[in-house]
Amino acid sequence: MDISLFAPRHMDIGGGAASRIAAMLHRLGVSRPLIVTDPVMVSLGLIDRIRAPLDQAGIPHTIFSDTVPEPVDTVIEAGVRFAADLDIDCIIAFGGGSPIDTAKAINILRAAGQGARMRDFKVPHAADHAALPLIAIPTTAGTGSEATRFTVITDTGTDEKMLIAGLGALPVAAIVDFELSMSVPARTTADTGIDAFTHALEALVSRRANPISDGYARAALRLIGRNLRTVYREPDNRAARAAMMLGATLAGLAFSNASVALVHGMSRPIGAHFHVPHGLSNAMLLPAVTRYSLNAALPRYAEAARLAGFAPDTDADQLAGARLLEALETLNHDLAVPTPSAFGIARSDWDRTQPTMATQALASGSPANNPIIPDETQIMRIYAEIY
Ligand code: NAD
């Protein structure tokens, strides 16, 4: 089996690791960072967890904080203009998946030079070149973007949530410090946690899984499956926050190497057209997509159920698979995941988009990694089922 492995060159993981940012820059041989973050990081003062040690080390830095949740191409272009005349030699991406993806996209577009647009890089084109070394520091335990070779940017002209993949989107280094996630509100804790769980599950059942991605996915399923409810109910539980943060990064490493599948393929059009946060649209889809796919990869789904603590080790595959379906429904209930209608999306809205939701889901390429590959009709049936 041929394996093509992607991972950051260095990762510093642990409570308080953000305070070692200056040492990380020193190790990488860079000293003039642009920090890309969001306004919440600035207003909460979380950004000071890296600004203070940078100041202490005498490292000058500039901040771009005009990023938005679920990033769009116009903000990326604004970021490239902001950075154009700065004397910088690296980018620090600080925040949830949105600012991290924004930083990656700025870095890719900056390397491409004048006249380039984000959509020039969407899959199946490769985004292999970045202007500067990028160090990612996540503040949510969710996307795993700190460890992936992806960035997801919405085209404001077409409302398409574009998947952009390549070495240019892979951070050179990451600092994974669960203490940065202690302040994440309950709703975002749930949404990002389900996102991470979905990454791990989809990586394990993906047609592109390999022994290395399997190792990451298994470790992630164990950590996330056993800590997601706890972290939602007990936001101050440091052990659970630490487990979720590590689990999310491991899940990122898993799907960066095995790819995601149908849940993510169907989730992106929901985000683009109806502005549902990424983790939430995954959560809405996860039980129905798993039900649709279960028998095509039953041993793998059953293994996931056991790893996540949803089924005892003694269960045969059939029973463990059934328990997985039940556990995913219960998880959504316990984490108060709304249905699309509760989110203000009418059933008929699914049919109105142009191109259709199913066409867009298939265009991303992710459904082709699913254990069973659906056609447009089957995809529309699953969308209808999640009400
Ligand atoms: P996010 O970055 O949009 O953050 C959600 C909200 O939580 C924001 O308001 C943010 O300010 C707030 N927040 C973040 N950290 C906080 C903290 N520590 N305390 C308090 N508030 C905090 O959400 P996300 O789910 O992390 O990222 C979603 C984006 O990531 C989407 O655009 C999605 O498509 C993308 N994504 C990328 C990859 C990848 O591999 N690149 C993978 C999955 C998802």
The low-pLDDT segments are none
Structural domain count: 2
- CATH architecture grouping of the largest domain: Up-down Bundle
CATH class (first level) name of the largest domain: Mainly Alpha
Radius of gyration from the CA trace?
20 Å
Number of helices: 14
Q: What's the helical proportion of residues?
A: 40-55%
Helix and strand sequence = EHEHHEHEHEEEEHHHHHHHHH
What molecules are bound to this protein?
nicotinamide-adenine-dinucleotide
InterPro entries: ADH_Fe/GldA (IPR001670), ADH_Fe_C (IPR056798), ADH_Fe_CS (IPR018211), Alcohol_dehydrogenase_Fe (IPR039697)
GO molecular function, one term: metal ion binding
Catalytic activity: a primary alcohol + NAD(+) = an aldehyde + NADH + H(+); a secondary alcohol + NAD(+) = a ketone + NADH + H(+)
Cofactor: Fe cation
Structure description:
It holds the Pfam family ADH_Fe_C. Keywords: NAD, Oxidoreductase. The protein is α/β, with parallel strands linked by helices. It folds into 2 domains: 10-180, 3-Layer(aba) Sandwich (Rossmann fold); 186-385, Up-down Bundle (Dehydroquinate synthase-like, alpha domain), CATH 1.20.1090. Helices cover 48% and strands 10% of the residues. The chain is built from 14 helices and 8 strands. The protein has a 6-stranded parallel β-sheet, with helices on one face. It has a two-stranded antiparallel ribbon with strand order 6-7. Helix 9 (262-274) crosses helix 13 and helix 13 (357-363) crosses helix 14 (376-385). The longest helix has 23 residues, at 211-233. The radius of gyration is 20 Å and the shape is globular. Bound molecules: nicotinamide-adenine-dinucleotide (NAD).
